[in-house]
Amino acid sequence: MSAAQPATASQGKIALEFDLPAPPQSLARLAALMREPDVDLITVAAVVENDLSFAAAVMKAVNSPLYGLRGSVQSVQQAVTYLGVRELTAIVYEHGLRQAFPPVPALHALWDRARRRGLLMGRLAQALAMEAWGAHSAGLFEECGKAVLFRHGPDTYLPLWQAAGEDDTALVEAEKAAFGIGHDELGARLCEHWGLSPAAVASVRFHVQVQAQHHLPRVAHRYVCVLSALADTVMKDPDRLEAVAARLAPQAMLDQTSLLRGLQRVRSRLDEVVNAP
């Protein structure tokens, strides 16, 4: 396992180092598998089964109401058959993230949102015939920079976070003033450290800007940024979904009609994800 990687932030006289937690070995192995063109289900299941903590997390999640499976799943092999590689891997990544940070109430809601956002983005990508793992992992990691800042200075960060509420633009400005870096950039660095795809890294790095301004950055794989904004809209203001899709589709060279049809196909399933306990 590699050592924690320092991320240096600087703004004016501020120069701080943040220790980015290293990914568990099982996650590093899964990251390599997810980069392969043909992912082997048996190999993925074996990696998870060899880590008792991850295997337990998978069994708990797959039998929860969130996935709505009929009957009880008895093994990781069964879980990967029912869920597929992407959603099973996402459960392991979420558990790995939770383990890397303090188990405090302030972060519980963040990880719950991460799970739902990842599912939303992954299923939207799948419905639209896009690469789904990059989208799903981007959703999981979108707010992880907040967890890094909280771990670094909880007494300073928590009041800033609470004062900003859902206004992440204001939060990033407060973070830069206090720590020299925003959670968007810090989260992107953690994504790189954990081996996520460039598309996921870019989505995390620019998600605050895209969700606030509905303007896409000039990066490759811009569709993941679109899915991030759509998932954010579904979770916060679903009545604006079509308007947001219409604004972003042309910027990413996506067909607006196809995008809206894809959204409609999965809309009921997205509602189930958002409202799941």
Describe the structure.
With 277 residues, this protein is mainly alpha-helical. The chain has 2 domains: 80 residues, no CATH class; 173 residues, Hypothetical protein af1432 (Orthogonal Bundle), CATH 1.10.3210.10. It is 68% helix and 5% strand. The chain has a two-stranded antiparallel ribbon with strand order 1-2. The chain is globular and about 50 Å long. About 3% of the residues have low confidence.
Secondary structure: elements and pairs:
Elements: E1 5-11, E2 14-20, H1 25-34, H2 41-49, H3 52-62, H4 76-83, H5 85-100, H6 105-127, H7 132-141, H8 144-152, H9 154-164, H10 168-179, H11 183-193, H12 198-213, H13 223-236, H14 241-248, H15 256-275
Antiparallel strand pairs: 1-2
Helix pairs in contact: 2-4, 3-5, 4-5, 5-6, 5-7, 6-7, 6-13, 6-15, 7-12, 7-13, 8-9, 8-11, 9-10, 11-12, 12-13, 13-14
